[in-house]
Design brief:
221 residues; eight-stranded mixed β-sheet; single chain; globular
């Protein structure tokens, strides 16, 4: 009888453990656990998206509630996608939108050249000048989009860059670039204010902004 009871209890314990592990493998339970830990350690980390692209739906919702927006990106493609479309259409209108993109006119051996070299290792269609041309195209797009809106500032930077930051007055998305994946396929940290990660994100942006230059209007060079 004791052996039978121990067997039943052991089976139940094993089932409970497997259930707990399967729940933790899912996204939302992991987010709950992450948020609970961040409350204790003060980091402000609430979610970890395995890919930046998976965060864009939530990002659009956060942008719709934002009083201000700050973005520093390595290429800027995300600024032309669905998450940011309401900004350019005028559906939402934060008090200010500050955008930092790399300076595509920097001399050779800049961060853009080094990033192009890394991306070409896993993306055979990535030529040395492709990243520069994509940044120029995105600057042209954003310059045109800002023509009919007030409170949008676009500047260029020439600094080492390892992390895309999209921040509002309440949250920050941090995507750290890797040497073997595009930014959209890299892990993304979702941090809320107040918290250490959120503070670091704003400090990084403000430092880059202070050392940036104004993006010229392509229609009035």
């Amino acid at each position: 009888m004791n052996a039978f009871l121990l067997g039943v209890l052991s089976s139940l314990a094993t089932s409970a453990l497997l259930l707990a592990l399967s729940l933790l493998h899912a996204a939302r339970p992991l987010w709950w656990l992450t948020a609970a830990c961040s409350w204790f350690n003060g980091t402000g980390l609430h979610r970890v998206y395995r890919r930046q692209s998976s965060a864009e739906r939530t990002m659009r919702e956060d942008l719709a509630r934002a009083q201000w927006v700050k973005v520093i990106a390595g290429r800027g493609n995300i600024l032309t996608r669905e998450a940011f479309a309401p900004l350019w259409s005028g559906t939402i209108s934060p008090a200010s939108v500050q955008i930092l993109l790399p300076d595509p006119d920097t001399p050779n051996d800049s961060w853009l050249d080094r990033r192009s070299h890394n991306v070409a290792r896993f993306d055979p269609g990535f030529t040395p000048d492709l990243l520069r041309s994509q940044v120029r195209a995105n600057i042209d797009y954003l310059t045109q989009a800002a023509q009919t809106h007030t409170g949008i500032w676009l500047r260029r930077y020439n600094l080492p860059h390892t992390c895309r930051i999209i921040a509002t007055d309440k949250v920050a998305y941090l995507t750290f670039y890797s040497d073997n994946a595009h930014g959209r396929n890299s892990p993304c940290l979702y941090a809320r204010a107040p918290g250490l990660l959120y503070t670091i994100a704003l400090q990084q942006f403000d430092t880059a902004w202070a050392n940036s230059t104004e993006a010229p209007d392509p229609q009035h060079p």
